[in-house]
Design goal:
Layout: H1 11-28, H2 41-45, H3 50-71, H4 83-110, E1 115-117, E2 120-123, H5 130-136, H6 139-164
Antiparallel strand pairs: 1-2
Helix pairs in contact: 1-3, 3-4, 4-5, 4-6
């Protein structure tokens, strides 16, 4: 079942969801880079991939948005009483997932570092561009906002599963 249905999310949607969840979790490990100047396993092993994984996430979120728009009429039905809140919450998650890599790229370019993805130089090192660096400075606050949204998303999924005992979580598993 590749496409979504009224009762369950399809394979493609679930691959986007869980694959991106894994990669975003990896990205959030960047916070450990601030401990002991990154002189530990996480800082030396996972953090160096931060820009490349973030760039991959930008591509994936764009593809995911396109897929979601294509599947919007096939999605599982929402409880009408909370449909607005569900759409608003997901909209904020998508916005944060899109803004994170964009502000990260603005940080790299704005500070003159260039932009290198999986060993491929996409933009050369150059002069600092203050307006880009300024917008890029939103990267960290957006990361904390995304973390709060993720915790809320997980919390609501668990609430549905354990308290409401409905099939909301099962749709994505």
């Amino acid at each position: 079942m590749n496409k979504d249905s009224e009762t369950r999310y399809g394979t493609v949607t679930r691959l986007f969801h869980w694959g991106m969840a894994f990669l975003i979790g990896w990205q959030l490990l960047k916070v450990f880079d601030r401990i002991d100047d990154g002189e530990h396993w996480v800082g030396q092993t996972l953090v160096p991939w931060h820009v490349s994984i973030g760039s991959l996430l930008l591509l994936l979120v764009l593809l995911r948005i396109g897929w979601a728009m294509n599947q919007k009429h096939n999605r599982p039905a929402q409880d009408p009483a909370v449909a607005f809140l569900v759409k608003a919450g997901h909209g904020l998650l998508y916005a944060a997932m899109l803004l994170m890599p964009v502000t990260g790229i603005l940080t790299m370019l704005g500070n003159g570092y260039g932009w290198k993805v999986f060993g491929i130089q996409l933009a050369a090192k150059g002069d600092e561009i203050p307006w880009m660096a300024s917008l890029g400075s939103l990267h960290s606050p957006i990361a904390w906002t995304l973390l709060v949204l993720i915790v809320g998303h997980i919390g609501m999924a668990l609430l549905h599963h354990f308290a409401r005992k409905d099939d909301v979580l099962q749709r994505m598993l």
